[in-house]
Each structure stands twice: as C-alpha cells, then as structure tokens.
Design goal:
- The complex is a heterodimer of chains A (410) and B (75).
- Chain A is of the alpha/beta class.
- Chain A is built from eleven helices and 25 strands.
- In chain A, the strands form six sheets. An eight-stranded mixed sheet of chain A has the order 2-1-10-9-11-12-13-14. Chain A has a five-stranded mixed sheet with strand order 4-5-7-8-18.
- Chain A is globular, with a radius of gyration of 22 Å.
- Chain B is mainly alpha-helical.
- Classes of the chains: A alpha/beta (410), B mainly alpha (75).
Chain lengths: 410, 75
C-alpha cells in the first residue's frame, strides 16, 4: 500500500490510489482554501494545479475580521466552481499524476499571507516555477518519508509538501500532535526527513530513546541553538542536521550546517549586502502587491565571517517582527487590534525572550481600569486575531515606556 | 509553594477562558492532564520566572507538576 498522507490528528490514512480516484471524481473546486484538514488542503492544491486555476490559502484559524481584512469576505461558499473536466484526463496512477503536475501549469498561482510590516498581513503570490525552485526530484529522494511539521497553509509547509509530492513520497503529519504521538509516528512510519522550526525540536527534548530512521533534519525560521543541536544529535544519531534561511517572499535560500552560511555560486549575483542588510534580487521573489524594485530588502542583518569565499551569519532583524516559535507576529497589527477596544487609551506590544518559543508577546496598556480587565482584553482579541498573536502578559501602566528619542521602546 | 504554582496555573487557565483547577498534584502532566499547549508553557515559564527568578525550561521541557516543584525547591 503506497501511502500519500497519514494524519492521525484528523483520522486520515490516504493512499496515492485513493487520492487519484478522489481527483478523478472531483466535480467542484474552490480557489479559496481554508480547512483544518491537511488532506483537503493538499488535494485542493493538486486539483487547482491540474486545472490550472489559482489557489488562495487561508489559515484555518483566521478570525472573521482577519478574513474580511485580507480578502474582503468571511465566507467562501460562493466561490465554488465546477471543474472543467476537459482540462484533466482520467489519471490511472501516481506516475501519470506526477507527469501531469510537472508539465508546468501556466496560469496557476498560489497566494499565501505573511505578516506584513505595515500592520496587516500581506499577500504573496508564487507560480509553479518559483514555488518548486528548490524541489529536488531525484531517484534517491523517491524513498523519503516526510514528517510534516509545519502549518500546511504557510510557505515552509508548502515547500515541504511540494518536495514530497513531486518525489511521490509519503507524508506523515506531525505538526500540532503531542510529543508522545510525534515519536510514535516517526518510529512506526520510519520517517526519514523532518523540516521544522527550532521550537518544534525543542518541544521534543529531552528524550531518552534514539530514532535511527531519520536521515535529515532541517531547521529554520529562527536561530538554532547549540544545545538543541547536541541533544538532537543524540536522539537522531543518523541524521544530518541543517539550518536553512527562508522567507515567505523567496522560500528557502541558503542552508548551513551551523550558524555560518555560504552562498552557492549560482546565487552570488542574486544576493548583495547593503549596510550589512541582506538584499535579494527580484528574480528570486514571489510577486507581492507592492512593487519591490530590483532588490528586495529582507530586513535581516548579517555579519560577514569571511570575504573569499563569502561566509556570513545572521545577527538580527531590522524589522520589529516578533518570532513566536517560527510564527511571525507584527506588533503593530496587535497594537491596532487592542486599541480598537473601548476603554484603551494607549498600548505598546513588545517581545520577551522565552526558552520554549524563542519569544513571547507581551503588552503594556494604559486603560480605564473600570472598563477593561486582562480577561476582557483577551476575550476581545480572540475574535480579532489568531491565538498566537494575543499577548500572553498584559500589564496595566499609567504611561508607556518610551526610548529617549520618544519612540515606543520594544 | 504548591499554592502559588496553582495560582499561576489558574491565571493562565482563566485567561484562556477555561475552568480553574481546584488542586494540583506532583504526578499531573502539564500537557495531558492540565491541557497546556506550547503557548501556555511559554507563558508559564515567564510567570514562574517573575516569581522565582528561575527558568524552568532552561534545560529542556519539563513534563509534570512534580518536576517544576523539584526545580523550585532546588533553588
């Protein structure tokens, strides 16, 4: 039995044959995709690729007001359309499906939302070529079994999905499961590859056993520390551990064994540095709503380790985005949401370093205490923004702390 | 000490809109018995650190109430 997806969180065990039958029998599709079921998301992506129509991925936990902000709609029923059967011949097997997928669809594009710098998340579009740029489809990779440890509607998850899909691999869902189930799934399914945030790995540790099946561990999204690295080496003795630098706009760009990155020769002309900030050439980018010019400023500050050959490490981010276990939170977006609550006079959202998630969102508010409480702020925010964006520590103050220049201090 | 920890737990639980705990015991598992997710655990570290000046997750994830109490007693 050739498994396409196993997801114990949604009680799914889907074979490649089932997937192919399901696609052959699909008569409707929706360009907007919002579902907590990984299979539904994956199938929608494949179906839209085959009929060459766009797909817009929405987090399943977006609140109604986030959806309206992002798309103008809170309900997507009206976007259900019939599948144009003339575009897809009946598929007989996995080989035919993969062949058809690889005939680069021309109009297909995938839209994702990423934390923007202005307060609301921004739209990023990729076509088939840009989203699969880093997929390695080789004979060796055909045997991989992927542990899926990202949200399926985020860039990192989509990249893992395509790597697995185009190699005809099995995907085992690990994201959102508890530690015990994660180890059981890795062991029972002999997972060979895992890509996840450092937080995901941190939550797996400490562990007394060893898991020999894993050959490759990739980590990205936030800085990987030495201690986690050593502990992982003990748990996964046969795994090669790699760090990647990636962004929603460009996907994964560089990989390294430790925190020092070097450039592959083909990228040398597509990357440059300005005042130690990393700039990426537009040809490596997905399309965004705002024009980015020739070079895209990543906001990531680097330190050059050696000039020839060029080696560098990431020092920090210029932007004020808060990284919560690999999820980016824009403090401005959270401040905007809080300030719409009656009784709030002023608010400052900031981050505090945290051993579990890397960072934790905190805020200070100036408020009429008889009108608002910590619980009323949280309740209000639950209808406005996703759970991970809600400050975990709310402090009531008489006035906000500011820096000497009068700017709010984060 | 157990009483203060219970209070910290209940602050987190109440903030998430869930029902408060009446008591805790050392064998209770933070995730399976109390129902904390990684965001709750992150908040727990910050609150305990504010009270006791110790990062309970510094050496990896702690699983039970008893393990937290042990860490705090050591201090």
């Amino acid at each position: 039995m050739n498994i396409f997806l196993k997801d114990i969180g949604n009680d799914r065990l889907v074979t490649w044959d089932y997937l192919i039958d399901d696609i052959n029998n699909s008569s409707i599709y929706n360009s907007y995709c919002k579902s907590p079921d990984y299979y539904t998301v994956f199938k929608q992506i494949i179906l839209t690729l085959l009929i060459d129509e766009e797909i817009i991925l929405l987090d399943s936990d977006f609140t109604e007001s986030e959806l309206i902000n992002l798309t103008g709609y809170s309900d997507f029923e009206e976007f259900i359309k019939p599948v144009d059967k003339s575009k897809i011949p009946i598929l007989n097997n996995q080989k035919e499906l993969l062949k058809k997928l690889n005939n680069s669809p021309r109009n297909w594009k995938i839209t994702l939302f990423t934390s923007g710098t202005t307060g609301t998340p921004k739209k990023v579009c990729h076509d088939f070529k840009s989203i699969t740029r880093f997929v390695k489809a080789t004979e060796r990779n055909k045997k991989s079994v992927w542990g899926f440890a990202y949200n399926p509607t985020h860039m990192a998850g989509i990249q893992v999905f395509f790597q697995a899909l185009l190699n005809g691999n099995t995907i085992i869902r690990l994201f959102g499961l508890n530690t015990k189930d994660i180890y059981t799934e890795i062991t029972n399914n002999a997972i060979t590859h895992i890509s996840a945030t450092p937080t995901f790995y941190r939550l797996l540790l400490p562990y007394n056993g060893t898991v020999p099946s894993v050959e490759r561990i990739t980590s990205g999204g936030e800085k990987f520390n030495e201690k986690t690295f050593k502990q992982l080496n003990q748990v996964f003795p046969n795994a090669k551990i790699t760090n990647v630098y990636a962004s929603t706009e460009a996907g994964s760009l560089f990989a390294s064994k430790n925190d020092i990155f070097s450039l592959r020769p083909e990228y040398e002309s597509l990357v440059h540095f300005e005042n130690n900030e990393l700039l990426i050439h537009k040809s490596l980018m997905g399309r965004t709503e705002t024009s980015i010019g020739e070079w895209y400023k990543t906001g990531d500050v680097i330190e050059i380790v050696s000039h020839k050959p060029l080696k560098f490490r990431f020092v920090n981010r210029k932007s004020e985005m808060i990284n919560i276990g690999g999820y980016k939170v824009n403090p401005l977006e959270v401040e905007e949401a809080i300030s719409t609550l009656k009784g709030i006079n002023n608010v400052r959202v900031y981050s505090k370093p945290n051993s579990v998630l890397g960072n934790i969102v905190c805020c200070e508010v100036v408020a009429n205490r008889d009108q608002v409480t910590e619980i009323s702020i949280r309740k209000f925010l639950q209808s406005k923004i996703q759970e991970f964006k809600i400050p975990r520590l709310i402090q009531f103050v008489d006035s906000l702390s500011t820096t000497r220049t009068g700017k709010l201090k984060r | 000490m157990k009483a203060t920890i219970l209070e910290v737990f209940n602050t987190i639980i109440e903030n998430r809109g869930n029902k408060k705990l009446e008591s805790i015991s050392p064998e209770m598992h933070l995730k399976y018995d109390i129902g904390f997710d990684s965001l709750d655990l992150a908040e727990l570290t910050v609150r305990i650190e504010a009270d006791y000046d110790i990062d309970i997750f510094e050496d990896g994830i702690v699983n039970t109430v008893g393990e937290i109490l042990k860490k705090l007693e050591k201090k």
